């Protein structure tokens, strides 16, 4: 083979911008695969091994590589397009080689992990009293299986046959550069994509964080939890925040956007929690004890004698925590549940009711009687 072979890059499956370290790494990987001792000594394998060795001889010498580049620049200038995906791919590969133990060309500066924002629904009572809320923080992290390369053997993956490893193709009359649609700009075709990330190079990472919810937390409130965001640069999937970032910068913060779930029975008024309490006439007259909801679970409330519709009952110290200490009250607004008489039971119920009214007499319905008397008095005024 000639020492100046413009296909030397293709034979090694590297972009023309490849670093010396990458060329050497790729050569070693390919020569291991096609070495006559390992490939069974077939004629094809031997020819491939000789071609690979020749290509490496050409590219490993500065003078030889310059000669290859000069001839290639005339035949295929597009392969030297600046800013092509291949440059980035080459950088990524060089970094990947560093992870594999090959000396790195350039260490990336540690970077702080991004802040993560997560919307969290907090139960009503926990938002009111405060407490720990488990929150799942998820983000896209560099795949830990392949170090973000998308392949377990990135140096052994072949060049994309559509773009020749450049990551870009020139199309149309004006020869505009476009990202290669076949390899997505990577410049390589992944024959053995990483199992962990299916070749994408990143995967979902998550961790459960116990977020301390402050008392009296409002709907829409933003809480910042330091160091529980995305892992810093160099962090990989499964590593956690402040303690888990490997070789990278500070982890980001977790921003919790609180949604307080409404309670169907309880509402907040100032420092107090208020609840409408429908009661039957019988419960009121007997002075029963009833189960009532509260921030602290179900409570037993004894109805005092003589309590009526519209009155308020109070359990002290079961409302919201006050900033100055102590708690507001839990208040119940009594609503008499007037029976609805319908269907087959209507006549029997009405007969019983009339018996009750007769027994109670006009004194038993003081408000109704006073109202009727006031209207009568008004009629008398009008007649006068
Ligand atoms: Zn992977
Ligand atoms: Zn391509």
Describe the 3D structure.
With 384 residues, the protein is of the alpha+beta class. It has four domains: 8-107, DnaJ domain (Helix Hairpins, Orthogonal Bundle); 116-140 and 200-260, Urease metallochaperone UreE, N-terminal domain (HSP40/DNAj peptide-binding domain, Sandwich), CATH 2.60.260.20; 263-338, HSP40/DNAj peptide-binding domain, CATH 2.60.260; 348-384. It is built from ten helices and 13 strands. The strands form five sheets. The protein has a four-stranded mixed sheet. Strands 1-7-6 form a three-stranded mixed sheet. Strands 2-5 form a two-stranded antiparallel ribbon. Strand 8 (266-269) and strand 9 form a beta hairpin. The longest helix is centred in the N-terminal third of the chain and has 18 residues, at 43-60. The structure holds zinc ion (2 copies). One zinc ion binds next to loops.
């Amino acid at each position: 083979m000639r020492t100046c072979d413009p296909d030397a890059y293709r034979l090694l499956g590297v972009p023309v911008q490849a670093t010396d370290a990458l060329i050497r790494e790729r050569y070693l990987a390919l020569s291991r695969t096609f070495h006559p001792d390992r490939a069974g000594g077939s004629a094809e394998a031997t020819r491939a091994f000789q071609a690979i060795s020749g290509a490496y001889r050409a590219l490993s010498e500065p003078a030889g590589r310059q000669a290859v580049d000069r001839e290639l620049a005339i035949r295929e200038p597009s392969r030297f397009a600046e800013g092509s995906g291949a440059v980035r791919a080459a950088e990524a590969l060089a970094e990947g080689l560093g992870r594999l133990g090959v000396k790195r060309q350039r260490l990336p500066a540690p970077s702080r992990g991004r802040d993560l924002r997560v919307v969290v629904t907090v139960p009503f009572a926990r938002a009111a009293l405060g407490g720990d809320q488990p929150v799942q923080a998820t983000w896209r992290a560099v795949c830990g299986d392949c170090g973000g390369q998308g392949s377990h053997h990135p140096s052994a993956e072949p060049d994309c046959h559509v773009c020749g490893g450049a990551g870009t193709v020139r199309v149309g009359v004006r020869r505009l550069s476009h990202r290669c649609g076949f390899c997505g700009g990577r410049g390589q075709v992944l024959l053995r994509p990483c199992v962990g990330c299916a070749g994408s190079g990143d995967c979902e990472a998550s961790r459960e964080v116990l977020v301390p919810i402050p008392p009296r937390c409002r709907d829409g409130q933003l809480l910042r939890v330091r160091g529980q965001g995305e892992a810093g640069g160099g962090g990989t999937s499964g590593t956690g925040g402040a303690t888990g970032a490997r070789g990278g910068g500070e982890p980001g913060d977790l921003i919790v956007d609180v949604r307080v779930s409404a309670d169907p029975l309880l509402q907040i008024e100032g420092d107090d929690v208020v609840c409408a309490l429908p009661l039957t006439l019988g419960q009121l007259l007997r002075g029963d004890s009833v189960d009532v909801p509260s921030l602290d679970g179900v409570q037993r409330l004894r109805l005092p004698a003589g309590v009526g519709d519209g009155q308020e009952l109070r359990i002290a110290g079961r409302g919201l925590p006050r900033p100055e200490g102590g708690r507001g009250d839990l208040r119940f607004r009594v609503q008499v549940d007037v029976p609805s008489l319908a269907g087959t039971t209507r006549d029997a119920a009405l007969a019983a009711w009339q018996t009750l009214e007769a027994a109670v007499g006009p004194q038993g319905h003081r408000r109704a009687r006073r109202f009727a008397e006031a209207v009568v008095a008004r009629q008398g005024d009008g007649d006068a």
